[in-house]
Amino acid sequence: MTEPSLDRARTPLLTLITQEALDRDYQVAASRRGDGERPERRRSYRGGVIAVIGVFAMLVTVAAVQTSQNADVDDASRASLIDRVEARQAVLRDNQDRIAQLRDANAQGQEALSSLNRRYADARARVAALGALTGFAPVTGSGVRIVVDNPDYAGPNEVVRDSDLALLVNGLWEAGAEAISINGQRLSGASAIRNSGEPIEVNSVGIAPPYTVIAIGDRRTLGADFVESRSGLRFLNLADQYGFTHEIDNVDDVRLGAAPSSFQRLRSATYLQRNPKTKGGEAP
């Protein structure tokens, strides 16, 4: 009975090699038996075949062991790679959380900066307004100009004195003036008008006649209100009595400079802080 032939396309390689080697050995042995080969030579051929098969089996075993070792190495490398990937993913998550925290802190910082800028702008506006009212900031506007001069051939007791200019200035304040200067010297709360001998000093600066007094205010009413004010009436009476010349004109656009900054320093008084700062630099 003939053995079925091997399907070479589906048979495993190791089985195919072993089976074909054995079949060829059997064919050779059968042909030699037909030719009357001696039993001794048949045994030697059989031993050679067994040795070849043993060597081949050993090679297959070595290959299987090497493949198993390589598989273990591949598994270890794969596990190490997975651990590294997971570690990098953890670091990435930490960095993403840190970025989110920094973004929140940056948003809070920008909001605080915007609030600080608004408070700074408000403070500057208040400083400018206070500077204009107190005389320590330049101002511009419309108002009146009054020029006062000594009479011709005036004697020592017939010239304009510091008290006369003080009456003029007080009348303008009473009439609603918002800023006043005398011969370019801006008046402030610390300004003084006084005689130093015959010359008059304003802000410790000597001035000479004619004396030009400029007041910024509502020019529609400032001149009339000055004439009707108590101090204005007293000044006009003195002017008529001693013969001072005086002219009052409306002005459309004048600029008054600031009073000397040295007058802003407190010498004896101490600033009273009503709202002490709380932690964080903000007043309650």
UniProtKB/TrEMBL annotation:
Spans through the membrane: 47-65
Coiled coil stretches, renumbered: 99-126
Cellular component terms per the entry's GO annotation: plasma membrane
Keywords: Coiled coil, Membrane, Transmembrane, Transmembrane helix
Record-linked InterPro entries: DUF881 (IPR010273)
Organism superkingdom: Bacteria
Family: Belongs to the UPF0749 family.
PANTHER family, per database record: UPF0749 PROTEIN RV1823 (PTHR37313:SF1), UPF0749 PROTEIN RV1825 (PTHR37313)
Protein name: DUF881 domain-containing protein
Species this protein is from: Nocardioides simplex (Arthrobacter simplex)
